[in-house]
Amino acid sequence: MAQTDVLLLNSNYEPLHVCSLVRAVGLMLKGKVEVLHQNGHVITTSMSEFRAPSVIRLRYHIKRPMPELRLSRHAILARDNYVCQYCGSGKDLTIDHVIPRWRGGRHTWDNVVACCRKCNLKKGEKTPAQARMVLARQPKRPSYVPFISLPHYVKAKEKHEWLQYLPNFEGVSSRA
Ligand SMILES: [Zn+2]
Prior knowledge:
Bound molecules: zinc ion
Low-confidence stretches: 171-176
Structural class: alpha+beta
Number of domains: 2
Number of helices: 5
Shape: elongated
Radius of gyration: 20 Å
Order of helices and strands: EEHEEHEEHHH
Strand content: 15-25%
Mean pLDDT: 87
Distance between the termini: 30 Å
C-alpha cells in the first residue's frame, strides 16, 4: 500500500475500499467521514493545514451484498493464513486436495487446503488418515469475505494501523 492510500470503512467499521488520499480528503471536506487514524503527514492547502488521514469511516451506512469469493489458489492461501495446514510452515506453499482427486475428492472449499511441498510429497495420493497427518482444522468456505478485492486485502494487512480493521477470514484466526 502506498503511503497515500486510505482505508475506507463502512459506518459499522467494515472495510469497504482502499481509496486515494485525494478522494479521502474530498469525503472529509464534505463531512461524510470521520477520521479514525492519521498517517502523520501534513497536507497544506491554500486555506488550511491538516493531517493526512490513514483510516476513515463513513458517517452513513452503505448496504452491500456479500461478494462472491472465487475458489482460487490465492483465496485458499489467504483463507489458511499462508501456512501449511499440516505442519504450520509458511514456505513453498501449494494446494492440497484433502481427499485426493483420483479418489473422488472435489475441488471445493471443504476439500482444499494450503500445504507445503514437503507435506504434499509426504502425503502423496493418500488421505490424511492414511498418511497419518493431521489437519490444523477442517477446511470450509469462508463466511467472512472481504469486500475490498483480495490482493488489496492481503496487501492492506501489511499496514500496521489498518490491521485491527481487517477481520480474518472467519474460522481461520484460531489456528492450532
Ligand atoms: Zn507442511
